[in-house]
Amino acid sequence: MESYLTLSEYNAQGFERIEDQDHFDKLLSKASAVLDNTTRRFYVFEELESDYPYRKEAFKKALGCQIEYFLETGELTTESLNNSPQNVAIGSTSISNTSKFNAAGKNESKSIISDDIYIYLEGTGLLSRGVC
Predict the structure, then answer these.
(1) Is 37 exposed, middle or buried (0-12, 13-18, 19+ CB in 10 A)?
(2) Residue 41 in domain
(3) Domain span at residue 63?
(4) Among 48, 57, 60, 86, which residue has the fewest nearby CB atoms (within 10 Å)?
């Protein structure tokens, strides 16, 4: 399968610059899987480069957003994103990482999907959940 995005295309989008091709390929592989799942594998069955320019560019920008999300969080899995302790005590100092949204104080799980991808994908038809 051909890559959805090249390193030079990613760097041209204005996100955090990546120089190492191997590191980019690892991020791209996971980001592609996330977006394929989110878009019901649209580009697994359709050719990205021959699609409408608007939708193709929106998908590539969403992919760049997802890669940058991985760079910012430093994590590539849901487990690693959510594997931080809720309470830490060092000597007589205690730090609690409770939620402001949950009455029980338990943290919500973070999603592996960047919320920012929806900025680019909404209105493209790629988020449609209807029957084809």
Answers:
(1) exposed
(2) yes
(3) 7-77+112-121
(4) 86
Supply the angle between the helices 53-73 and 21-38 in degrees, to the nearest 10.
120
Q: What is the domain count for the chain?
A: 1
Q: Under a CB-based contact definition with an 8 Å cutoff, are residues 67 and 10 in contact?
A: yes
pLDDT in tens, 10-32: 999 999 899 999 999 999 999 99
DSSP string, 29-68: HHHHHHHHHHTTTHHHHS-STTS-HHHHHHHHHHHHHHHH
At residue 13, φ and ψ (nearest 5 deg) are -75, -15
Tokens coding 120: 């680019």
pLDDT tens by residue, 43-67: 999 999 999 999 999 999 999 999 9
